[in-house]
Design goal:
single chain; ABC3_permease_C; alpha+beta
């Protein structure tokens, strides 16, 4: 097969169906950009989980005098020194516990003022209204239930709270957005495949005379199909290149510059350039193979004599 003939046929096909080729390029670019974006979002969520789950604490809040009057869990009164000592001793014996730190009422009041000093409620609070607490760092953040089972409802304990639960809500939202992006990607992918099939069939129909002559002179089916398959592959590859460009620009302008989220949200550990660059070969390979295979199966029946 002469490469010059194949290349010339590719050029002819792309020029004849310029509008549909443009539609294929755009739909492939958008669908693969969403595909790459969803992969990066998944990596970002995993990175954030690994970063934040390693820092979450379980908090055991102890009863104070105010709780003894209003909270059923503290009906037996404020926590005593013996109860606090026993709670700490039991925590330090547990194999799932990494470290235990104590926060007094004065420390809790100070931290509250630092975080919510502008709140109208802050001016009416006093240190004796704050709760003492133990902050527990677990060796495995998934073992929260072990602490909750051991201390929830115990004398002197007002509540056991897991910060991981708050993070789970955030990560659930992010994963929901990721699923929505994947659903949109699937829709765009179907549209792209339909456009590819229609573009290839229109191109084949417009050149039915040439393909008929090629059949009469004994050309093989693959020789006849090759230019059409290559047309689809080239259009898809252009779309894949655009998708890669979208991802690179998005990473550059959203995280590093422009919005500069890496500076404004310093508490979030964003994915690096290595995560983006490792996705680009997959996107390019998909953009090349997907249209080529779609064209191949579409032409098997259409060009069959």
């Amino acid at each position: 097969m002469r490469a010059q003939f194949v290349l010339s046929e590719i050029g002819v096909g792309l020029r004849r169906n310029l509008t549909m080729t443009f539609a294929v390029v755009v739909s492939v670019a958008l669908s693969l950009a969403l595909f790459g974006g969803s992969l990066l979002m998944s990596d970002q969520v995993s990175t954030m989980k690994g970063y934040w789950y390693d820092k979450v604490n379980v908090s055991i809040f102890l009863c104070n005098k105010s709780d003894a009057e209003s909270d059923p869990n503290c009906a037996k009164g404020a926590v005593t020194d013996d109860q606090k000592s026993q709670i700490k001793a039991d925590l330090e014996k547990m194999s799932v516990v990494d470290t235990v730190s104590y926060e007094s009422q004065d420390e809790a009041y100070k931290h509250y003022k630092e975080q919510f000093g502008d709140s109208p409620l802050a001016s009416s609070l006093t240190p004796d209204q704050m709760q003492e607490s133990y902050r527990i760092k677990l060796k495995d953040p998934e073992k929260y239930q072990v602490i909750a089972t051991a201390f929830d409802g115990r004398d002197g304990v007002q509540s056991v709270q897991d910060q991981k639960g708050l993070l789970d809500n955030l990560f659930g939202l992010l994963e929901g957005m990721n699923i929505a992006a994947l659903a949109m990607m699937a829709l765009m992918l179907v549209v792209a495949l339909m456009l590819i099939v229609n573009t290839v069939r229109v191109s084949a129909f417009s050149r039915r005379r040439e393909t008929g002559i090629m059949r009469l002179v004994g050309a093989s089916g693959f020789y006849i199909q090759a230019p059409f398959i290559m047309e689809a592959a080239v259009a898809g590859l252009i779309g894949g290149g655009l998708a890669c460009g979208f991802l690179i620009l998005a990473r550059y302008f959203i995280i590093d510059h422009g919005l500069a989220l890496s500076e404004k949200l310093s508490l979030i550990n964003f994915i690096g350039w290595d995560a983006v660059l490792t996705k680009l070969p997959l996107i390019l390979a998909t953009s090349l193979l997907m249209p080529a295979l779609a064209a191949f199966f579409a032409l098997r029946k259409y060009l069959k004599v």
